Amino acid sequence: MQSWRRRVGQPYPARIQSYTPNSGNLTELFRFDPARFGYLTPPPTPPFTIDEEGSGVIEITRIVKAAPWFTPNRRYYLGTAQAHAAWSITTGTRAPHT
């Protein structure tokens, strides 16, 4: 499992991919929403920035098999995301993008 963090200023959304060594397959599992974080053009939607990160992904398929929304023959994952926003906690206003 690979976690790709977007470098500050990079115009592509961060994503998490799964790599299968035996076949060489690289499968995208998650991608940050380009409508919020930008993708070349348009730029990010305020207050979001182009500095997001995804990591800590685990497969939870066996854990959720009893859930009413479970669909057989699918895999389920749980991941973490750091979605940075240009927002000032102290003033409650949007900070300029840097």
Short description:
The protein has 98 residues and is mainly beta. It has one helix spanning 34-37; strands spanning 2-4, 15-20, 25-31, 48-59, 77-85.
Could you explain how this protein is built, in words?
The chain has one helix at residues 34-37; strands at 2-4, 15-20, 25-31, 48-59, 77-85. The chain is built from 1 helix and 5 strands. Helix content is 4%, strand content 38%. It is extended and about 45 Å long. β2 (15-20) and β3 form a beta hairpin.
Walk me through the topology.
Layout: E1 2-4, E2 15-20, E3 25-31, H1 34-37, E4 48-59, E5 77-85
Antiparallel strand pairs: 1-2, 2-3, 4-5
CA-based shape: extended
Average pLDDT figure: 76
What is the succession of H and E elements? EEEHEE
Regarding quaternary structure, how should these chains be classified?
single chain
Number of domains: 1
Gyration radius from CA atoms, angstroms:
17 Å
Approximately how much helix is present in the residues? Answer: under 10%
